[in-house]
Design a protein that fits this description.
- The complex is a heterodimer of chains A (97) and B (249).
- With 97 residues, chain A is an alpha+beta fold.
- Chain A is built from three helices and five strands.
- Chain A is globular, with a radius of gyration of 13 Å.
- Chain B has 249 residues and is an alpha/beta fold.
- The termini of chain B are far apart.
- The relative contact order of chain B is 0.20.
- Classes of the chains: A alpha+beta (97), B alpha/beta (249).
Chain lengths: 97, 249
């Protein structure tokens, strides 16, 4: 099991952090934290649940993409979230070499 | 006509009542409401997405007897000083405020800007969710929506213990720098500091009522919390007392 994290602070001063635990290419744990805002909460939680239920190192970014038009972020944006996930995946792949 | 509720309570009961009012508003059974309340005892609330141990000095909070509660709204950690902060909450709908979230923050925070004007203090709304005086934060707000119902709540620091606030929160240097500050004293201020005299809670409540009335272009009449709201809040309160909720991240 490999636990990876990545975080960023954006120009507005808000921050976002992603933690992913991957085992056998499947996502076992996935936490998004920070002092940002996201609306509606129900869609955010649905995204989180989908990643935990079906997420793999290969498909997690496409799951995030499904929610691009469903979640409005404030303080950070969905691109920041995507970038952090990609950063985590890059770190993960580097540990597999 | 808006309803004004003024009360005080524990962190758990305060957050529960805000949530109950949002739920009842979504059902459209209650008037639009401005609630002004204090936390007894002083407490910390953290944003929905925050990791409690990364933002609060848990040991110091415990030593000081300061409970920590997770909100249903996003944003950052807040110190609700029993003797120096009044929390406002606005429960309404997109009939009154913009369907655009960012714009609605501005519309509602206008009430705080007008309140500060009552004391001769020039303030401005700074997106996303702050009201500042001379670049220093005097109020922060956070909003959640359910359908067309809106709950926005936030702080009004009239005499907050800033040294204690600074000790409670693990504020990264980069966050202060992002706001052009070196220390917490460069980043936040209080009404008492700005006017150079100790401002009382009663003065602030009166001014907040006038400030929001002007912002909403409406009379605001004191009224009570409805029994249905209190009953619903009682059931919700258990969530805010639970480790599972407060430590979920």
């Amino acid at each position: 099991m490999t636990r990876i994290e990545a975080s960023k602070r954006v120009k507005s001063g808000k921050s976002i952090k992603v933690e992913i635990e991957i085992g056998n290419e499947r996502i076992k744990d996935f936490i998004i934290s920070g002092d940002f805002f996201a609306y509606p909460l129900e869609q955010f939680e649905e995204l989180h649940r989908k990643v935990l239920e079906n997420g793999t190192a290969e498909n997690v970014t496409s799951i995030i993409n499904e929610y691009k038009n469903k979640i409005e972020f404030a303080g950070v944006n969905i691109q920041d979230l995507e970038d952090l996930i990609l950063e985590c995946l890059t770190k993960y792949h580097n540990t597999q070499i | 006509m808006w309803r004004l509720v003024v009360n005080e309570g524990t962190a758990e009961s305060n957050m529960a009542l805000d949530e109950a009012m949002l739920i009842m508003k979504e059902k459209k059974t209650t008037p639009s409401t401005l609630r002004l309340y204090t936390f007894t005892p002083s407490a910390v609330t953290i944003g929905y997405f925050q990791k409690i141990n990364e933002v609060v000095d848990l040991d110091f909070a415990r030593e000081e007897g300061i409970p920590i509660i997770r909100r249903i709204t996003g944003g950052g950690a807040v110190f609700h000083d029993e003797y120096g902060e009044i929390t406002y909450s606005v429960t309404s709908t997109t009939d009154y405020f913009s369907s655009d979230v960012q714009e609605s923050y501005r519309e509602i925070c206008r009430g705080l800007v007008y309140t500060l004007e009552e004391f001769g203090v020039k303030a401005k709304f700074e997106p996303i969710n702050d009201v500042t005086v001379g670049g220093k934060k005097i109020s922060g707000s956070a909003q959640i929506r359910r359908g067309r119902a809106i709950l926005q709540h936030g702080t009004f620091m009239y005499n907050t213990d800033i040294p204690k606030l600074g000790r409670l929160f693990k504020v990264p240097k980069e966050k202060l720098i992002a706001h052009g500050a070196n220390t917490i004293f460069d980043r936040v201020t209080t009404l008492t500091r700005e006017v150079g005299r100790t401002v009382t809670k009663e003065e602030v409540i009166d001014a907040l009522k006038r400030g929001f009335s002007k912002a909403f272009n409406s009379d605001i009449m004191v009224d009570r919390v409805l029994d249905e709201e209190l009953d619903l809040a009682k059931t919700i309160e258990e969530k805010y007392k639970s480790q599972a909720w407060n430590y979920r991240r």
